[in-house]
Each structure stands twice: as C-alpha cells, then as structure tokens.
C-alpha cells in the first residue's frame, strides 16, 4: 500500500490543528477564551468506597478516585496544579510513628495501599515528562509532613512545591481544598486527600471535569492567589479586625472587606474587586455563574441545553469580590429546594460553632437555612453525618438542636408546617478498630490503619441543584480555611448525586440520630 507523502501529511496535520472545532480557541481583549458551543465539557461524579462494605451497592457511571487521580497525572502534557492539605500517597507500615504501622504486606495489599503508590508513580512520570507541576499544601501531617511533594520537586526545576500556612494570614485555619487541574482543562474537586487511605479506606465524593477550560481557568485564578499568598510576607499584609458579624477580634489579610476602607490595603492579588466596608461578608444576589453544556457520559439524559454552574471559594478574602463565598453556595443550595421537595446533605463533621478559634464563635448559617426551608417550603431535609474514631463529641447536641425544628414546626395548630428534618449517623464498619496494629511491640486490637473508615464526602443536593465541596461544616472552614466547591443545576448530575446519597442513606451502615427527650417543663 502506498503511504501518504510528507507534504500531504503536513497539510493534513495543519488542517487538523487549525480547523478542529474541538480545539478552536478565540482571542479577545481579555486574552484567550474557549467558545462553549464548541467545547463539550464532560463531567463524572467520583467516589472512593472503603473495602469491606459489601452491602453498599455501586451507583453505575461513577468513577473511582484512584483512576481519576492517575488519569489527571497521566494525561497532563503541559501543566499540573495540585492543592492538597497533606500527602501520604505512599503507605508506611514499617514506620512506628505511622498509623499504618505493624500491618503486613498482605494486609496493605488488602487495604488497597497500592493505588496510592500508583498515583505517586504517575506523578513522578509526569514530572519526568517535563510537565510544569505546582504542588501547594499545608505543612502536612505527622509523620510525613511535606516529604512527598518535596521529593517530587527535588532536583526537578519543572516541579515547584510550596507550603502555605493560613494561620499566618487568618490566625487559624489550613489549606483544606483538594483540587487537581491538568493542562488547564481537566479538573478534580472533592473530598479526597492525596493520601492512599482516601482511595480505598475513606469514603470520598468529588467531581471530575474533562475538557472544561473555562471552569479550569476560574479555579486557576483561585490557585494563583493561594500561590501568591505563599510567596508574600504575611506580617506585612495582615491586620487585626474587630469583626462585627462574628463578634470577635481576629487576624485577616489587610484587604479584607471586614476592615474599614480607610484601614484597608491595596490587594496584592490580581482580579480583586473593591467593595464598601461591610459587617460580615456580602451575600451576592447575582453570583458569577457560567453556562456550560456538560455532557454526562453513561447517563440517560440528553444534554442539548446548557445549565448554569458555579464555583465558590473560602476564605472570603480570596474571592476578589466577584465570586460567591463557599458558605453562600451551601446556603443557596439548601434554599434552592422546591416546595415539598427534599434536600440531601452528606458531611463528615457538623458543628454549629467554630472549632479552632481562641474565642469560640456560634455559627447557625446552615442550620437556620435548613429550619427555614422546613417551615417555608415544607421541605424534607435528610442529613448524613459521619460517626468515627475522631468524632467531635458536641456534634450530637447540635444535631439534636436541629432536630428540634420538627417540634417547632408542629408546635402550634396554627402552624402550616409539614416539613421535616431527618438525621442519620454513618458508621463505616471497623471505624472503632483503627490505628497502628502494633504499639511499643504490643499488638493492638486494631484491624485498620489510623484515620480510616469514615464517610468524608461533603455535598448537598436539592431537587434542582448539586453542590460538591471540600469543606467540613464548621465555621472555620468558611472563614479561615481554604476550600473550593463546584455546583450545578445539571439535571443528570443532580439525579446521580441523589442516587449516591440514597444508596448510603438506605444502607445498613446508618443509625438515626435520636431527638431530645420531650421536656416536661411546660406541663404542670
Ligand atoms: C486520560 O483520561 C481518560 C479519561 O478521562 C482515561 O480514559 C485515560 O486512560 C487517561 N490516559 C492516561 C494516559 O492516563
Ligand atoms: C516581613 O514584614 C515585617 C513587617 O513589615 C518585617 O518586619 C519583616 O522583616 C519581614 N520579613 C521578611 C522575611 O521579609
Ligand atoms: C444561562 O442559562 C440560563 C438557563 O438556561 C439562563 O436563564 C441564563 O440567562 C443564562 N445566563 C447567561 C449568562 O447566559
Ligand atoms: C431513559 O429514560 C426514559 C425515561 O425515564 C426511559 O423511558 C428510557 O427507556 C431510558 N432509556 C435508556 C436507554 O435507559
Ligand atoms: C469524647 O467522648 C469520649 C467518650 O465519652 C471521651 O473518651 C473523649 O475524651 C471525649 N473527647 C472530647 C474531646 O471531649
Ligand atoms: C464498634 O462499633 C460496633 C458498631 O457500633 C459495635 O457493635 C462494637 O461493639 C464496637 N467495638 C468496640 C471494640 O468498641
Ligand atoms: C511507647 O513507649 C515509650 C517509651 O517507653 C513511651 O514514651 C510512649 O508513650 C509509648 N507509646 C505509646 C503509644 O504508648
């Protein structure tokens, strides 16, 4: 058979490059942008399901976190930007300081530790392919700290690793977002840490967006701002503010809206919008959204229409006055519920206060939003909260207080209130048998490594809107800690997320939270 001549191949090549509708890029005064009509953005929900949960039926069409992380690294050809709280992709069963300590090779294999190693190898491969890699994280956790990102960056000028301590900027808080951006077009946002345990021993939920340059570009702005913070001298850019909304004095970046305009500095962050001094952070009545047509492969849904989607970020000072706060996006998702419809919320933590501030702050934003829709829309709210080895004890009091909404709803015969709050704990089997298998040469009763066996996903879904986040539902995550969410009105994503929730809610791994005992205070 005759082969094509070289000039003909070249012509074909140029034709493909410049006329391919998939990759056509337009230029405008704002720089390059991609035409949404021509780029078909795809989205998949992503889960990690811990081993040994035989009664959890898998929701079809959902990808596994380990695959998605491997692909994001494997497909990157130009750039890879990762935000992580900490790194422990490689297990350390031989390190007595590690929660993996004492488990055998077979145990580790059974726990799925190899998946973490494979993700790490894919990252090494990308680094060796000369992909420009940026790794941004908190200082990490005991005993590995920043060992893995530092190793990846060592001797490779194309890999940069920085540690960002938000405590220096907000007085407390950490980098808690989990975000991967590959080649400025493929993105992961979700609850999974860069930890082998997050792939096979912790239950996680996220979203994988493929061929979505417009969404990637917006997440990148946030990334660049965090990167910038990591390279600034925080003491030259922070101030104490008397915060009227939260009734406390705390440290904030000097461009914060919480400061009076006269005391405020010029923001060193690009794309920052000046707004007036506010008591609390402004709720945007018309937050920035983008209309993208998102294809959801494997789902029975025609995607000829575009639906609005959004991103939200925390803390507020990184929002440039343009994007909505993460807290608003959670509240608006709860409030998006239709009359008589259902809101489903899944979270590891739930606490109506702050956790890490020196002055404890009361925080009722989400529980108020729930009570409001139970009253005004007769909505049903289903809340799933993790119960595990590091459960925060006072959670139960706050959940009971939220359940009291049901008593208030039915408290008068004049109330026209038929809504309902239902709350369940999620118990991944083995949650109370986690930790090193050996301590000081003595065998423990543990059968799983430390910090495993927990439902760690953070999301909310009403009948019309899905919100997938990285933040725990506690004050600190919205005001001092870095978090990112992706949300959408895409009906296929909404219904798939509802199915994922219902599978958990109806599984044998849940227990109902009991309401407060009826008080007899008023009967005499
Ligand atoms: C690239 O990503 C796709 C899915 O988005 C996956 O099927 C493929 O295996 C990935 N390629 C590599 C080299 O990781
Ligand atoms: C940071 O800024 C403070 C206050 O402006 C200054 O005293 C300090 O020397 C600076 N530190 C560095 C490392 O530049
Ligand atoms: C996005 O789509 C929605 C519904 O299709 C429409 O109401 C809205 O005006 C659109 N927004 C923009 C900015 O095009
Ligand atoms: C898609 O859903 C519609 C309505 O729910 C149903 O009638 C149809 O059979 C489904 N198609 C497939 C391929 O599952
Ligand atoms: C939580 O409760 C458990 C059991 O009652 C107790 O052992 C633990 O110390 C408590 N933790 C905190 C932080 O109060
Ligand atoms: C662990 O939790 C399970 C389920 O709640 C319980 O049945 C079991 O007794 C607990 N085991 C220990 C060692 O606490
Ligand atoms: C192990 O032994 C050392 C030295 O005796 C002691 O300091 C340490 O607290 C022990 N660790 C645990 C977890 O019991």
TrEMBL record:
Keywords from the UniProt entry: Signal
Signal sequence range: 1-27
SMART domains: PLDc
SUPFAM superfamilies given in the database record: Phospholipase D/nuclease
Residue ranges of domain PLD phosphodiesterase in the record: 171-198, 451-477
Keyword Signal in annotation: yes
Entries under InterPro entries matching the protein: Diverse_PLD-related, PLD-like_dom, PLipase_D/transphosphatidylase
Alphabetized Gene3D superfamilies for the sequence: Endonuclease Chain A
Protein name: PLD phosphodiesterase domain-containing protein
Species: Penstemon smallii
High-level lineage: Eukaryota, Viridiplantae, Streptophyta, Embryophyta, Tracheophyta
């Amino acid at each position: 058979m005759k082969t094509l001549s070289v000039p003909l191949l070249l012509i074909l090549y140029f034709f493909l490059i410049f006329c391919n509708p998939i990759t056509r890029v337009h230029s405008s005064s704002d720089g390059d942008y991609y035409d949404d009509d021509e780029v078909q953005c795809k989205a998949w929900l992503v889960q990690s399901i811990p081993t040994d949960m035989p009664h959890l039926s898998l929701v079809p069409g959902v990808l596994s976190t380990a695959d998605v992380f491997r692909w994001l690294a494997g497909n990157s050809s130009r750039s890879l930007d990762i935000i992580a709280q900490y790194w422990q992709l490689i297990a350390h069963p031989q390190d007595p300081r590690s929660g993996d300590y004492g488990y055998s090779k077979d145990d580790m294999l059974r726990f799925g530790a190899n998946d973490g190693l494979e993700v790490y190898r894919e990252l090494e491969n990308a680094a060796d392919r000369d992909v420009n890699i940026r790794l941004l994280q908190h200082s990490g956790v005991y005993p590995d700290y920043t060992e893995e990102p530092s190793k990846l960056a060592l001797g490779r000028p194309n890999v940069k690793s920085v540690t960002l301590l938000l405590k220096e900027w907000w007085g407390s808080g950490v980098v808690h977002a989990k975000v991967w951006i590959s080649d400025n077009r493929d993105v992961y946002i979700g609850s999974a840490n860069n930890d082998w345990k997050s792939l096979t021993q912790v239950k996680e939920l996220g979203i994988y967006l493929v061929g979505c340059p417009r969404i990637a570009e917006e997440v990148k702005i946030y990334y660049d701002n965090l990167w910038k913070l990591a390279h600034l001298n925080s003491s030259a850019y922070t101030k104490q503010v008397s915060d009227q909304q939260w009734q406390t004095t705390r440290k904030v970046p000097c461009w914060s809206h919480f400061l009076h305009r006269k005391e405020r500095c010029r923001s060193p962050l690009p794309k920052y919008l000046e707004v007036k001094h506010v008591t609390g952070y402004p709720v945007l009545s018309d937050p920035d959204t983008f209309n993208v047509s998102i294809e959801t492969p494997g789902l029975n849904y025609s995607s000829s229409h575009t639906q609005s989607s959004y991103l939200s970020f925390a803390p507020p000072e990184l929002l440039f006055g343009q994007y909505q706060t993460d807290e608003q996006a959670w509240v608006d998702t709860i409030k998006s519920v239709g009359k008589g419809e259902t809101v489903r919320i899944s979270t590891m933590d739930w606490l109506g206060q702050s956790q890490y501030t020196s002055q404890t702050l009361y925080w009722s934003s989400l529980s108020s939003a729930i009570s409001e829709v139970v009253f005004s829309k007769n909505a049903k709210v289903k809340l799933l909260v993790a119960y595990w080895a590091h459960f925060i004890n006072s959670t139960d009091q706050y959940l009971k207080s939220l359940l009291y909404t049901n008593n208030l709803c039915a408290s008068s015969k004049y109330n026209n209130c038929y809504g309902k709050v239902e709350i369940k704990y999620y118990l991944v089997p083995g949650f109370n048998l986690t930790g090193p298998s050996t301590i000081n040469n003595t065998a423990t009763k543990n059968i799983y490594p430390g910090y495993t066996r927990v439902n760690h996903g953070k999301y909310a879904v009403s009948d019309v809107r899905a919100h997938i986040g990285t933040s725990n539902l506690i004050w600190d995550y919205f005001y001092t800690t870095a978090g990112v969410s992706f949300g959408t009105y895409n009906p296929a994503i909404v219904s798939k997320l509802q199915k994922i929730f219902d599978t958990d809610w109806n599984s044998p791994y849940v227990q109902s939270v009991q309401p407060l005992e009826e008080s007899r205070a008023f009967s005499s």
